[in-house]
Amino acid sequence: HVAVCALSTTHRRRFVAEAASHGVPFTSIVHPTARVSRRAHVAEGAIISAGAVIGAHARIGRHAIVNRGALVGHHTTIGDYVTLGPGANIGGCCTIHEATYVGIGAIVLDQLTVGRHS
Question: What's this model's pTM, rounded to 2 decimal places?
Fold first, then answer.
Protein backbone atom coordinates (compact mmCIF):
# COMPACT_ATOMS: atom_id res chain seq x y z
CA HIS A 1 0.00 0.00 0.00
CA VAL A 2 1.04 3.59 -0.65
CA ALA A 3 -0.62 6.84 0.39
CA VAL A 4 -1.07 10.50 -0.46
CA CYS A 5 -2.00 13.17 2.07
CA ALA A 6 -4.45 15.53 0.39
CA LEU A 7 -5.49 17.55 3.43
CA SER A 8 -5.79 21.19 2.42
CA THR A 9 -4.01 22.70 5.39
CA THR A 10 -0.69 24.42 5.94
CA HIS A 11 -0.15 21.87 8.75
CA ARG A 12 -0.13 18.89 6.38
CA ARG A 13 3.43 18.11 7.50
CA ARG A 14 2.16 16.81 10.87
CA PHE A 15 -0.21 14.32 9.25
CA VAL A 16 2.49 13.13 6.84
CA ALA A 17 4.96 12.69 9.71
CA GLU A 18 2.44 10.65 11.68
CA ALA A 19 1.76 8.32 8.75
CA ALA A 20 5.49 8.03 7.97
CA SER A 21 6.21 7.11 11.60
CA HIS A 22 4.02 4.04 11.04
CA GLY A 23 6.02 3.08 7.95
CA VAL A 24 3.48 4.25 5.37
CA PRO A 25 5.21 4.97 2.02
CA PHE A 26 3.97 7.81 -0.19
CA THR A 27 3.43 8.17 -3.91
CA SER A 28 2.60 11.05 -6.25
CA ILE A 29 -0.55 11.33 -8.30
CA VAL A 30 -0.78 13.12 -11.66
CA HIS A 31 -4.25 13.38 -13.20
CA PRO A 32 -4.35 12.14 -16.82
CA THR A 33 -5.48 15.58 -18.07
CA ALA A 34 -2.62 17.40 -16.32
CA ARG A 35 0.38 18.37 -18.43
CA VAL A 36 3.75 17.98 -16.74
CA SER A 37 6.87 18.78 -18.73
CA ARG A 38 9.29 15.89 -19.08
CA ARG A 39 11.88 18.34 -17.79
CA ALA A 40 9.95 19.01 -14.55
CA HIS A 41 10.35 17.12 -11.27
CA VAL A 42 7.43 16.05 -9.07
CA ALA A 43 8.45 14.84 -5.60
CA GLU A 44 6.85 12.07 -3.55
CA GLY A 45 3.40 12.66 -2.15
CA ALA A 46 2.58 15.50 -4.56
CA ILE A 47 -0.82 15.70 -6.23
CA ILE A 48 -1.20 17.30 -9.66
CA SER A 49 -4.91 17.74 -10.38
CA ALA A 50 -7.00 17.85 -13.54
CA GLY A 51 -6.01 20.48 -16.08
CA ALA A 52 -2.91 21.62 -14.21
CA VAL A 53 0.14 22.57 -16.28
CA ILE A 54 3.70 22.27 -14.98
CA GLY A 55 6.35 24.01 -17.10
CA ALA A 56 9.87 22.92 -18.04
CA HIS A 57 12.46 22.77 -15.26
CA ALA A 58 9.79 23.36 -12.59
CA ARG A 59 10.17 21.50 -9.29
CA ILE A 60 7.13 20.45 -7.29
CA GLY A 61 7.96 19.69 -3.65
CA ARG A 62 7.03 16.80 -1.39
CA HIS A 63 3.34 16.58 -0.53
CA ALA A 64 2.48 19.71 -2.53
CA ILE A 65 -1.04 20.03 -3.97
CA VAL A 66 -1.46 21.64 -7.39
CA ASN A 67 -5.22 22.00 -7.74
CA ARG A 68 -7.28 21.86 -10.92
CA GLY A 69 -6.31 24.27 -13.63
CA ALA A 70 -3.32 25.68 -11.75
CA LEU A 71 -0.33 26.78 -13.85
CA VAL A 72 3.30 26.56 -12.77
CA GLY A 73 5.79 28.40 -14.98
CA HIS A 74 9.20 27.30 -16.19
CA HIS A 75 12.14 27.18 -13.73
CA THR A 76 9.75 27.64 -10.80
CA THR A 77 10.13 25.89 -7.46
CA ILE A 78 7.05 24.93 -5.47
CA GLY A 79 8.16 23.97 -1.97
CA ASP A 80 7.17 21.06 0.25
CA TYR A 81 3.60 21.09 1.61
CA VAL A 82 2.50 24.00 -0.61
CA THR A 83 -1.11 24.21 -1.77
CA LEU A 84 -1.89 25.97 -5.06
CA GLY A 85 -5.61 26.73 -5.26
CA PRO A 86 -7.69 26.02 -8.36
CA GLY A 87 -6.68 28.29 -11.23
CA ALA A 88 -3.63 29.76 -9.47
CA ASN A 89 -1.06 31.04 -11.97
CA ILE A 90 2.58 30.99 -10.85
CA GLY A 91 4.88 32.77 -13.30
CA GLY A 92 8.29 31.66 -14.51
CA CYS A 93 11.40 31.65 -12.33
CA CYS A 94 9.41 31.94 -9.09
CA THR A 95 9.93 30.34 -5.72
CA ILE A 96 7.03 29.44 -3.45
CA HIS A 97 8.55 28.34 -0.15
CA GLU A 98 7.28 25.51 2.04
CA ALA A 99 3.84 25.29 3.65
CA THR A 100 2.45 28.26 1.72
CA TYR A 101 -1.17 28.49 0.57
CA VAL A 102 -1.75 30.25 -2.76
CA GLY A 103 -5.48 30.92 -3.10
CA ILE A 104 -7.98 30.29 -5.88
CA GLY A 105 -7.14 32.27 -9.02
CA ALA A 106 -4.12 33.99 -7.45
CA ILE A 107 -1.41 35.30 -9.76
CA VAL A 108 2.28 35.35 -8.82
CA LEU A 109 4.24 37.39 -11.35
CA ASP A 110 7.52 36.19 -12.91
CA GLN A 111 10.66 36.08 -10.75
CA LEU A 112 8.90 36.62 -7.41
CA THR A 113 9.44 34.72 -4.17
CA VAL A 114 6.74 33.94 -1.61
CA GLY A 115 8.06 33.20 1.90
CA ARG A 116 7.54 30.13 4.08
CA HIS A 117 4.17 29.57 5.77
CA SER A 118 2.50 32.44 3.86
Answer: 0.94
